[in-house]
Design brief:
The chain contains six helices and ten strands, in the order E-E-H-H-H-H-H-H-E-E-E-E-E-E-E-E. It is of the alpha+beta class. Helix 3 crosses helix 5. About 3% of the residues have low confidence.
Length: 174
């Protein structure tokens, strides 16, 4: 039996990684996740290792699945530290529909400047952080922001080691 390229489960069968003709062995659970979208759960923690695979096709599938889990903090963190070769990243984006999906929602700062994932922004107001017990001070730089894919008013970033959601109206692009 063949092992799944993502989770190492037995009983994998070949799965084509579109739009190229490369294929990798995937178990039925991983195939369903790629086809229908994954639901956050313990099974998908295997993507933390799969994103670092030496096989580009495995990296592409891991990137697409991590991108499909925007509500999972562990998936966002894995995407933040992951690095793909430019051609592999283009392949992953090309087949995932990510390029079309991000065009639909535009995030803008307080001055109307368009924001992108990975930008650095500065807070323009003191913001109390609910549940964390501190206030994010005006002038704080938030590096490597992540855009919330389904809400044009929200972005995410780390302030004082905490990952928080920030309203776009309270930041300006640095």
């Amino acid at each position: 039996m063949t092992a799944c390229a993502l989770c190492n489960a037995e009983g994998a069968s070949a799965f084509a990684v579109t739009p190229r003709e490369d294929s990798v062995p995937l178990c039925p659970v991983c195939q369903a996740g790629v086809s229908e979208g994954p639901q956050d759960g313990p099974h998908w923690r295997c993507l933390n290792e799969a994103i670092w695979s030496p096989e580009p096709a495995v990296q592409v599938l891991a990137w697409r699945l991590l991108k499909a889990l925007p509500e999972a903090p562990w998936a966002r963190e894995a995407l933040e530290i992951a690095w793909l070769e430019p051609d592999v990243l283009a392949w992953a984006e090309e087949g995932s529909g990510a390029a079309q999906g991000e065009d639909a929602i535009v995030h803008v700062d307080c001055n109307g400047t368009v924001l992108a994932s990975g930008d650095t922004v500065t807070l323009i107001k003191d913001l109390p952080v609910k549940g964390a017990g501190f206030t994010a001070k005006r002038g704080t730089a938030v590096r490597k922001i992540a855009l919330v894919p389904d809400n044009a008013n929200h972005l995410e970033g780390k302030v004082e080691g905490q990952r928080i959601v920030i309203l776009c109206q309270f930041v300006k692009k640095a």
